[in-house]
Structures are given as C-alpha cells and as structure tokens.
Design brief:
homodimer; alpha+beta; SH3 type barrels; 8 helices; 8 strands; DNA-binding
DNA sequence: TAGGGTATTTAGACAAGACTAACTTTTATG
DNA sequence: CATAAAAGTTAGTCTTGTCTAAATACCCTA
C-alpha cells in the first residue's frame, strides 16, 4: 500500500517523464515540482526504488518502472475523474477543481472510483481537455483543445463536445452550431471569460462554461 | 489547522461524551475506539488540551471545549453528507458507506461541503437515520428509526420519508402507504434484507433500499 | 585537462504520532 | 482500611518524511 506522499512522487515523476521533454526527471526538478528539498526527493527516490516502482541510479535521471507507471496512471485517473465530478456535478469553476482533486485523488476505494466513473457516464476527457485513463490505464494520446483556449482572432473547427446531456445538445443546436462548424473567436470578455464568436456569418455570445464543453481543432 | 489524526480524536471524543452514557471518555476507552494504545491517546489528549480543544486533567475523564465540539460537529457533518452522497448518488449499499466516508470526511474544502450539501438538497438525515448538522453545527436531537431497523413481528407507524424525489413518492403512494400508515413487519429475507410487511390488511414486499427511506416510530 | 559551478548525495536533526515497558494513581475488594 | 487490580501516565524508541549543512560527483569552459 502506497502512502499519500509516495503517490505524489509517482504522479509527478509520470508528468516529468511523459511530456515531450522527458529529460526533466532529475532529483532537483522533481524536488521543485513537489516543493521539497532535493535531499527529501533523493530520500524518497531511494525508497521507491526499493519498492520496485522507480528506476533510480545515483546521479542519473529517474524513470518509472511498469509497476510505478501503472500506479501513477491510476492516480491520474482518479484525479481527472474527481475534477470532472467537481466541474460537471457540483458546478465548481474551471480553475477551482484542481486543488480539491489533489486531495480527493488519494481516497482509497476501488468501488468508489468505479461508481464515480459510471455516474459521470465514463467521461473521456476532464474539464481541462486532458484524457482520463480507463480502469486498465489506457488513455487517449493527447489533450483536446477546447474553444475556451483559442486565442482571439483565431479560427477553428468543432470536432466534438464534452458531454451529451440533452440540455447541452439542445442548446448547441439552437445556436446553429454542429460538428464541423467553423468558428472565429472575435473577443474574450475579461470579466467572465465569455466569448463573442463568428460562425457562418452570424455573431454569437457564449459563456465560458459553454466554451469548455466544445472541443475544437 | 487540525491534522487528520487530531480530527479523529475529536470526533471520537464527541461520540463518547455525547451519547446517553457520557461517562466513557477515559483515556482507555478513547484508545480502544481509535485502535491505539492508552499511551498514544494520553499523548494526543495533552496536545489537544494545549490547543484549547479538549478539557483534560490527569486521571480524569476528558471533555470537549466549545471549540473542540464545533470542530467535531463539522467533521460529523462532512461524514454524514458523504455517506448520504455515497448512498443516494453513487448507489453504495447501506453498510459500505461508512468506511469510505471515514476518508472523505478529512477533505479540506469549505466550498466542497457547501456544494455537496446543495447538490443533495440539504438532507437532514444520513442513510442510517442519524441527523446531519448544518453549517452552524445545529442538528436534530435524535436518530430517526427507519423501517429497516424494526424487528420482525413488531408494528410501527410511518412518520416521514428520507427523500422527496418524484420517483420515490410515486412508488410509495402506489404501494398504498402514506404518513400515519400502520405497518407490521412479517419477515426479513436474509438474502437481501428485503421485507414482507402488512399494512391495512394487505401484504407487501419491499426492498432494503425502500425500507431505509421510510422513517417510523 | 584543470577548475569551478551546479547538481546530487550523505549525515544528522526534527516533528508527528505510534509503540513498549515501567511507574503512579485511583478504585475496588476483602 | 489495607492492598491488589485496573486505569492512567511517563520515558524512551521507532517510522515517515521533512530539513540544513557538508561532502561529493558531474560537466562545461578556458
């Protein structure tokens, strides 16, 4: 059984070794990310090596073993499912979910995560567009871009939507938008991050919440 | 800020000092409840006294101060709200909710509890019939008895229902039951805890889930 | 290739919270 | 009322995970 701290190290190590620049898994970088001294990180790396979760060698970059990677993916699964729950069900805003999910991800209960996944109808992406691993640790290869992240002035095309609730689908079709619709972002209102957008010659105003539900390319 | 362990001690102390027999708050009883040695409990009691949360004197029974009581009530509020969530929303069974709620109650976020309370529509009782304190720490004085807890052969009267969802209210009225209905429990099926009951001369079979939603006296 | 700067590791200390073993106080019993 | 049993306390140790300070290894550049 892993402690909360061990889990945090594994998760961070996953992020450091999996991004495009996977050359960042030195003791120091890891320590930085976890807001801990290099001495502490070194200590933990040795312990995780003992447990067969991390490939660590003195003065080298660290890597996750298969077991370590699997544990990290489970944690990421829990984190992103909780973020989705907080955002979709409890109506947290986009930027509030992370901090609370950091705590919730450490709750130990297989059943809880299964039931939560089912309740949320097996979402594939979290509110930030990051893919959610399934129970076996498989996940879509990359982040989906949401309409909320398109810079003002740029054009994009709708390639999907986050959820398929009747309310949302009804609304999006009432707006005259659908898959393949081409959109240009005209303005982002700083006050509430709502957007003025242009689609097929018509100008529409949508909320941040809406824009986070629309995947684009 | 209280640690998880400090919180556990306060909550247990609340239960030991608040029940009918409030004479149980010795170092040893507390240690028993928390599965810890008396030495450990003694240690913690001294610490909590320092923090002004517990009235502790050598060789005496311990009590909660007002601050300690308030902290304990917040914890109990969180515990019972999570139990309600697990039972009502995620479809956990009656006996599975406690263990997971023991973990969830330590999540630190005012906002989370507010939003959860709202999402659950401000429930007054948890799945075991225990009252849920409100944000100010007020709660109904005693446990409500549910139909599930009535022994076979005994009669009782419906005095309320746990939730007022359309589905549930429709079902209970279809069964011909209502407030003030007199019920006798004929048999409890060991397999799934469903009940055969008698009301106004008619025999009805109901599930455990149903029986937990009906408050009786 | 020799320094010097940076990154990493080691050693030793500390806090929380548990434990065991030994000691003290309270309580109950004869 | 004396004393033994039960309950509570103290002292010292252990583990986890942190820290600081000092030592060591790596690597880049002159």
């Amino acid at each position: 059984m892993l402690s909360k701290n061990e889990e945090d190290y594994l998760k961070e190590l996953f992020h450091l070794t999996t991004g495009e620049e996977s050359d960042n898994a030195g003791t120091g970088q890891l320590a930085d990310k976890l807001a801990v001294t290099p001495a502490s990180a070194n200590n933990m790396l040795k312990k995780l090596k003992e447990k067969g979760l991390v490939g660590y060698q003195k003065y080298g970059k660290s890597t996750l073993t298969e077991a370590g990677r699997a544990a990290a993916l489970q944690l990421i699964r829990k984190h992103r499912l909780w973020e989705t729950f907080l955002y979709e069900t409890l109506d947290f805003s986009w930027d509030e979910v992370h901090e609370v999910a950091e705590q919730l991800e450490h709750i130990r209960s297989e059943k809880l995560i299964e039931k939560l996944d089912k309740f949320l109808d097996y979402p594939e992406f979290d509110p930030h567009g990051d893919p959610i691993p399934d129970a076996q640790g498989n996940m879509a290869p990359r982040k989906k871009l949401t309409l909320a992240e398109i810079p003002v002035g740029q054009a994009c095309r709708i390639i999907g939507v986050r959820d398929s609730s009747a309310l949302f689908l009804q609304y999006i079709s009432e707006l005259g938008l659908s898959l393949k619709s081409e959109i240009t972002v005209l303005e982002k209102i700083a006050f509430d991050n709502s957007l003025r957008i242009l689609s097929e010659g018509r100008e529409i105003q949508v909320s941040e919440k809406f824009s986070l539900h629309v995947f684009v390319r």
